[in-house]
Design goal:
The relative contact order is 0.14. This protein starts with 5 loop residues before the first helix and ends in a 6-residue tail after the last helix. The chain contains 16 helices and no strands. It is mostly helical. It has 2 domains: 178 residues, MFS general substrate transporter like domains (Growth Hormone, Chain: A, Up-down Bundle), CATH 1.20.1250.20; 199 residues, Growth Hormone, Chain: A, CATH 1.20.1250.
Amino acid sequence: MADTPGASGAAEGTEAVPTAAIYATYGVGFTGNGVAMMLKVIIPLWAIELNLSATQIGVAIGLSALLPFLLSIHGGVLMDRLGTRRVTMAYAVTTAVLCPLYPAFPSFFILVILQLITGLTSNMVWVGAQTLIVRFTRGKTALIARFSVAARCGTLGGPVAIGVIWDLAGPWGAFGFVGAAGALVLVALLAVPETKEEDPVGETPPRLADLVPKWSDYVAAFSMIAIPTVAFVVVMSALRISSAGIQTSFYVVYLNEIGLVGTTIGLLIATSEVGGLFGASMAGWWERFIRPHWVFILFATLSITFVSIPPLLGGIFVLLMLATFGRGYAQGLSQPVMFGILARAVDPRLQGMSIGLRTTSNRAATVLVPLVMGIVADAVGIEQSFYWTGGVLIASCAIVALFVRRIPDFRT
């Protein structure tokens, strides 16, 4: 098998990395992220098509994160035990099969069931893609960065493509397209070569019992919250991802209410992803002037602020683009800062568990935010729900900042 150019090895190690595996994994990241983002655009539009109430929309969107919240830690452990590639393939097949079924069953109950399942499967495909790239690159930063670019291209192109298809072909065409894109994830995974590491860990063959979550794994993960820095990242990570919970739920609903079509909605969400690229590239520059934990708090707060102000912008498209770009910039900038804080606080042997813990807190936020915002929208109106939800989240960031000032670990 061919290897990547020696420049990467010279820069970060002498061990060769298989080219075929690297590019196949780029494909998994691109297609998997694209599928997840396309679902986030068309599920709110489909909920509007079904004439659901704001509370029902919040429930349907929020529940897509329920099983990832409960099973993210177990999913990572399962990949270690049974092999990342084969477990990710099972999730990819399930996503591809179920996505075209949405318009076939136009009811709130079926929407919730499909959201529960596809929310888990699409999330775990992304977890599998990250695990594969770390395995094949053996920590080579340049190659991991290219994977991130490929994955970001999926989140850039996906919303625009699915918005256009929604406008041209309606729900059947849009969900069918997502199912086809899910099949491309499987094609990319089939191109990922088998490796020794893909064999189940240890000498014991896979058992049915391995599929059952183990309480000890969860206890070990949650015990890490005793580390103040880990607790800080877990809480702030949930607040940070809350802006995404707003953007992929009632932000789409609001844009539809003011008369924007699927194409322009997709374009606005893609603009946020462009902002994320710029923000991520400037994280190191900001850390030269502000300590990392304050950078994290500042830009997480700005991300929430930008996604909470669309009703103030009067439906002016240019202002909406600037706001969503600002939200993406702040969100993208805070991500590498967050990873850096966590990496410095946790033993390298426990990094995977710490990421699973952070993912669990993220999914908790993405369950609760759409649900609560939907209830608020039914009570006081959709515009007011942006102000109330955003205000509470910003106040929560301020409370975290007050606690950080009192913790000695953040003064050294």
